[in-house]
Amino acid sequence: MIVTGLRMEGMPDAAHVMRVINREEANTFGVSFADINNAITANVGSSYINDNLNAGRMQRVILQAEDRSNVDCQ
Fold first, then answer.
1. What pLDDT sits at residue 61?
2. Within 1-74, where are the H helices?
3. I need a labelling partner for 15 at 20 to 30 A (CA). Which of 3, 6, 62, 72 fits?
4. How far is 43 from 69, CA to CA, in rounded Å?
5. What is the reported pTM?
6. Beta strands in the chain (DSSP E)
7. Distance CA 60, CA 3 (A)
8. CA atoms within 13 A on the CB side of 37
């Protein structure tokens, strides 16, 4: 099932990016769909890594690309 055209209430329409991933070809190169999804997620937004204990406080580790590396949807 594919759901499209959704947005949060009160948010304006924004640019969309459509990616077509050839899973068979990716598998041929030993790249799983999960690996592709994780790479895209980290480069477009952010990705949760883990929680880290630092000086007695639990801190969440989030991977996020630098602004110049993020995909610019226009």
1. 85
2. 23-28, 33-44
3. 62
4. 7
5. 0.49
6. 46-54, 57-64
7. 30
8. 4
